[in-house]
Amino acid sequence: MPGDEPQDGPSRRRSPVAAVIAALVVLAIAASLIVSVPGAFGGQDDAGADVTVPDPAAPRQDQPGGYLSQQTEDGIRAAIEDSTAGSAGVMVIDPGSHDVLFSDGEAEALVPASNQKILTHFSLLAHTGPDQRLATTAVAGQSPNEVVLVAGGDTLLAPGDGDPEAVTGRAGIADLAESTAQAMAGEVDPEKPVRVAVDTSIFSGPSLNPAWEDGDIESQEIGPISPMAFGSHQVPGKEGVYDEDPVASVAEAFERELGSQLEEQVGQEVRVESAGEQDTSADPLLPSEQQEGVTELGRVESATVQEQAGRMMGESDNRLAEVLGRVAARSAGHDGSIEGVQQAAREAVLETLPEEEASKADGLRIVDASGMTMDDRVSADVLGRLLLTAAADDSGRFAPMIEAFPVGGATGTLAERFDDPDESEARGVTRAKTGTLNVVTALSGQTIRADGSPAVVVVLFDDVEDTDAARDAADRIHAIVAADGS
């Protein structure tokens, strides 16, 4: 499946590292109105059976379930034993009481694989907020025949017209060219070429993380990260084929469309040519009226970052994770760089922990935003803390994280999971993020128990000998929790 985690990577051992376990003082709860799966999950493509699932955002006043039955605890321990993992971190937390209902190996910092995207999403919500849209703009150059195309972090652009109902392709380059041509028409000299420069300064530093394996880059599981692209860095019309120079592709499409639109506006052919890179003072994260030192000629805006995170989580889109991580970094006041991603995510985690317990996150290691490197480290209790913050959130800022996860047996990377009889209880009631590397399996999110109460469930398996066994064990744990209270 495009965007799913790779199956290979280096194997190694590590020593345990202490992390975080604490109760969270947050109001509110998640979960119980029934909604239909299709169309409800932040831009994910629908797949699998049409099942009904509890709405994670619906508040519930009568929260039972501050414990697990002995049978449930025994079942979880048996699943851990069957996982073939050398190291395991498992936690179950009740969002109503904030009680830890089950824990095993929760303090050890383990490789999260794509569960790293949970940290990235949390950072995005903490620093950027769920409703921010990413603007791709055109600003005036130094003469009426000069224009600068400003990248704003939208890598889900459409090469033609945008679709206001879409996540991928909401903003269209043809629409941007049209509004830009209209703004230029009264000043442009059609006898001279129009020169188009590109400003990509919203991101900085290397486009490839040095921690990524050459094999993963060669297989296109991950690749260079740009602040402007079509279809999450893919060549338009060629799913799974990634563009070697996505910024150039967007710029060329803009130039073609601008030439056509200018000809329509001024009544004669206008030659449009590339003018290379040019930094401006434009800040694409700010609205038009707050721009200083530039004249904005046109603007198109993406789907919200929360809707984009739905695609990131549902499809396990590695490139989009890296893009959104850099957007979060810029929103936090850091450079849109690898280092900025690391700083912003760490700050988001530490701000969630009580000050007196901040040192317990010393084992946290954030190297990338997608989880493609074996150098990332996070403990089950840190992941549990972030998920609990989302599950118990009533402010609307972090609750969308739960909604972005794919649904067991229904959508995204979970469409074909929970397919065994002893896993079926989780179908339709588990929303979780998958994670897979060569010796790593993870599955963390929220499960609705049989009594209607939600439970945060974190599963990290490391040094796995049998990936299939580990995946089945992770699915069983979520299913066992889902069946609890019946």
Walk me through this protein's architecture.
This protein has 486 residues and is an alpha+beta fold. The chain has 2 domains: 70-129 and 310-483, 3-Layer(aba) Sandwich (Beta-lactamase); 133-303, no CATH class. Helices cover 28% and strands 18% of the residues. The protein contains 11 helices and 14 strands. It has helices at residues 70-82, 116-127, 173-184, 214-218, 246-266, 305-315, 318-331, 338-352, 380-391, 400-404, 467-483, and strands spanning 34-36, 52-54, 85-93, 100-104, 109-110, 133-140, 146-150, 194-199, 272-277, 296-304, 378-379, 430-437, 440-448, 454-464. The strands form 4 sheets. The protein has a 5-stranded antiparallel beta sheet with strand order 4-3-14-13-12, sandwiched between helices. The longest helix has 21 residues, at 246-266. The chain is elongated. The two termini are 35 Å apart.
List keywords for this structure.
single chain; 486 residues; alpha+beta; Beta-lactamase; 5-stranded mixed sheet; 11 helices; elongated; protease; Beta-lactam/transpept-like; hydrolase; membrane
Task: Give the topology, please.
Blueprint: E1 34-36, E2 52-54, H1 70-82, E3 85-93, E4 100-104, E5 109-110, H2 116-127, E6 133-140, E7 146-150, H3 173-184, E8 194-199, H4 214-218, H5 246-266, E9 272-277, E10 296-304, H6 305-315, H7 318-331, H8 338-352, E11 378-379, H9 380-391, H10 400-404, E12 430-437, E13 440-448, E14 454-464, H11 467-483
Parallel strand pairs: 7-8, 8-9
Antiparallel strand pairs: 1-2, 3-4, 3-14, 5-11, 6-7, 6-10, 12-13, 13-14
Helix pairs in contact: 1-11, 2-6, 2-7, 2-8, 3-5, 6-7, 7-8
